[in-house]
Amino acid sequence: MKPKVRSSWKYHYKCLPDERKSFRLLKLLPGKGEDPIRCELSIEDVDNAPPYEAISYTWGEPADKISVLCHGKHTIVAIHLRDALRRLRHENASRTLWADAICINQGDKKERGHQVQIMGPIFERAQRVLVWLGLGTDFDSGAAFELVRSLYPIFDALRYPSPNVEPPDLEAHVACVAQSQWEAFGELLCCPWFTRVWILQEIGLASEALVFCG
């Protein structure tokens, strides 16, 4: 359910000086656990922005909204984004991020259109892309990631074989993987994030990507 916020308590966006080159960055303020999400926005030039990380996530159901604090005022975001910000924030230091639902004025259709056009450069210029798959409460995300970690060096060796080095036996390794790990991996791939068309751009342009679940 979308929370109701009085106008005097609501955060009001400042206009971007150039919607085709300017964008906002989010300073996620320190906190831990279920502390309220507090953040501040700054306007930057996409070609000369300070270091930041971009979040790739799913919005979730339209009704699943919650309020977070921006400059002490309320702004409405998806619960999925709130969960991501809780997971990504530091306890004792701020973190500079880009997240579309907060950094773009969702009430300004014209701005949204212009910001979508520069989304490619935004992800390309980010230090890294932080992929949030969700809380992962319905499956063992740890087992799924452990399987990925164990398979990665094998696929890497097969992709880039070294001369005079026996290639790893993928079939033998796969045969040793527990059924529970395969099931957890299958559940991981069912996360809604993998169904988004935009991930092709967000991950394809990333200089580095880190994946978080739970």
TrEMBL record:
Ranges where the Heterokaryon incompatibility domain occurs: 52-202
InterPro entries in the record: HET (IPR010730), HetReg/Transcr_Mod (IPR052895)
PANTHER family documented for this protein: ANKYRIN REPEAT DOMAIN-CONTAINING PROTEIN 39 HOMOLOG-RELATED (PTHR24148), HETEROKARYON INCOMPATIBILITY DOMAIN-CONTAINING PROTEIN (PTHR24148:SF64)
Protein name: Heterokaryon incompatibility domain-containing protein
Organism of provenance: Aplosporella prunicola CBS 121167
